[in-house]
Design goal:
alpha/beta; Rossmann fold; 7-stranded parallel sheet; globular; NAD; NAD(P)-bd_dom_sf; oxidoreductase
């Protein structure tokens, strides 16, 4: 697909923190944006950008918003852990509406997945063995489970309908790292925006997975498909090590697994000691 800045791009979840960071960056790059969220957009809209309040559960409205769009940047839905019935509507049914819209419009999809889709993989032991993007799903929460489902929906829609999709397993995207774990998982807003621009401009993607993290020496993650869009991060969490390097949770589950605190939520197994080996895969 040849990108054209004359055709619109639909951004869901526009009123969230990541959406608000992306809007000015993408508008400044010349992309014609349509924004949507269930919450009002709290900032001034750049010139030519249109916002429509909508619920992802409303399939007809999502189809209408996606008309003639060349791409959908899907950041909408429940973005933290909640009971399953809360996650179900926007994160499963809502994603179906996104992919049906993409299929009809022959648009590509960027799905804001999460490290929580693989959160129960253990952190690297410092021996250089990093987790590659073709690893097994090991979700750490209902939220993480919905992200694994979303990536599999992208697999289905590529195999069956040819809908190109990039699944970005976002680590921790904030203005700056907040604790020691984020020295491995942090994704700067600037690196995220550069990734979106590369995604929209890439000639061909297929079905791809990219680790959503900046250029962090302490990373947990290895090979992915970033070469398909020509993206390389430029920022690094290492600049913040002196500020947050000592900020640990003190919880053995949180510190053992890549998903951090999400793995410890509602955890009912006995808490492991560092040397416990109880996984049977």
């Amino acid at each position: 697909m040849s990108a054209s800045k004359d055709r619109p791009v639909l951004l869901t979840g526009a009123s969230g923190n990541l959406g608000r960071a992306l809007v000015p960056a993408l508008a400044a790059s010349g992309w014609k944006l349509r924004l949507t969220d269930i919450a009002p957009f709290p900032d001034a809209l750049p010139e030519g950008v249109v916002f429509t309040k909508a619920d992802l559960n409303d399939g007809p409205t999502i189809l209408r918003l996606a008309e003639v769009c060349q791409a959908i940047l899907h950041f909408g839905g429940i973005s933290t852990e909640h009971p399953f019935e809360v996650v179900l509507g926007p994160n499963l049914r809502g994603l179906y509406h996104i992919y049906e819209a993409a299929r009809r419009e022959k648009a590509r999809v960027l799905f804001a997945s999460s490290n929580h889709a693989i959160g129960f993989h253990e952190r690297p032991a410092g021996n250089g063995e990093l987790l590659d993007a073709d690893c097994a799903f090991r979700p750490d929460s209902f939220y993480g489970l919905s992200k694994a489902y979303g990536e599999l929906m992208g697999r289905l829609y590529w195999d069956k309908h040819g809908v190109e999709n990039l699944n970005v397993r976002i680590g921790s995207s904030f203005p700056e790292p907040a604790d020691a774990r984020m020295l491995s998982t942090w994704l700067s807003y600037a690196d995220l925006a550069r990734m979106m621009d590369k995604f929209l401009s890439a000639p061909r993607i297929g079905h791809a997975v990219v680790w959503g993290a900046s250029k962090n020496p302490a990373t947990y993650w290895g090979k992915d498909h970033r070469d398909r869009i020509g993206w390389e991060p430029e920022d690094s969490a290492e600049d913040f090590r002196g500020k947050v390097g000592g900020k640990l949770s003190g919880d053995p589950v949180t510190e053992r697994y890549q998903g951090g605190g999400y793995t410890a939520m509602d955890y009912t197994r006995d808490k492991p000691s560092p040397k416990d080996q109880f996984s049977l895969d």
